């Protein structure tokens, strides 16, 4: 029986070498368009698909492989006598191998200002059909969809070890390949018609790495990244040194990236358990680091630190005196890298565009057998949208601190309270079931006098208890969304204590 392999690929990496190897193993290669041309140019015998189907490629290449003389060869079960009798009657040769990957849809639509017409042309029809047919008939046909699979394919063919388990694994990968492809297309078209929350939500993620365990050692875990979609978060960082990233490291690193990305000025964010334990701006990265650390020098132990500016030697030298899990920056100077080599276990991540906004995407949360999805908390935090609710108005310096404090607060687990002064956090309270408890934590654990500081609350203050805590601590300005039916009570207490309070009209819960 003639051994036949069909090769039709968009990604032509390794395809010439594969063609040579298959030819050497006695396979007739059937191919299409550019793939056939490339193989022929490299001296590999190729049978054009139209010579098999008896029908020419047409409609600008939209119709090439969609023909029963090819698909019957792919779908014929070689262990089914009736199938074999029928294709022999029809003079159709069975196909033993299909090598195919699909048009670069995701890469095309990722280009800026990609027109809809260009995107539509990248919707592959014959390729997915051929892959699915081969995957369905995996006991008779080997389906390969990724250049990384070519080496093992030839090794197994040469050793006659392409058993059913191997074929089934390739089939599963192939179906995942076409499913992800369709998910990209569905997502793009839903966006084209402004359907933010479609009836059927299809998502595509690729496995970046396995993880030793999840949040705890008895939980399995893996790291998946959006396939062809959002990029620019922790998944895009370059790993420079250190131990393997853990589940918790990755989650905390992303939290640090999102917080430090809030600031245009030089900034540092320290994260512990996915929540800030310190944040600061400064004239230098060293100044920002020292101020962020000073907020809570105890909790930063074993934490994650991120910068939005290149990390220099003096700062790195200072940091080596602290036990840190991960350090993230747009780049590291040679001097900084030399210092960190003394701490070989610390993980260094380089993310060139860490200063960009990384929270402008939908967020997902699993709930039982379902999933919640929401848009980003993407509004800019700025004084131009505020309403001054009190007799006293914040000074320009206080306004800057109020903006800083609220930027940090929206990255703290609710209930969130942040106390700040001079572009640095002095106290952070988050994750409490009572807002006043969060305020007591932020104020009570502050290591510096709070006179002249400001306080940010991620949600409204329904009572004046937090205002009274501010008055006792010497805090001079409060920023909160406002909107409580008891706003007048808080306003009155502020006025009695000379505290300025502004309403933003924007809540920043983070559960």
What does the model show?
With 511 residues, this protein is an alpha/beta fold. It is 36% helix and 20% strand. The chain folds into three domains: 3-192, 3-Layer(aba) Sandwich (Rossmann fold); 232-350, Cytidine Deaminase, domain 2 (3-Layer(aba) Sandwich); 384-503, AICAR transformylase, duplication domain (Cytidine Deaminase, domain 2). Strand 12, helix 14 (334-340) and strand 13 (347-350) form a beta-alpha-beta unit. Helix 13 (313-319) runs parallel beside helix 14. The longest helix is centred in the middle third of the chain and has 29 residues, at 164-192. It starts with a strand and ends in an 8-residue tail after the last strand.
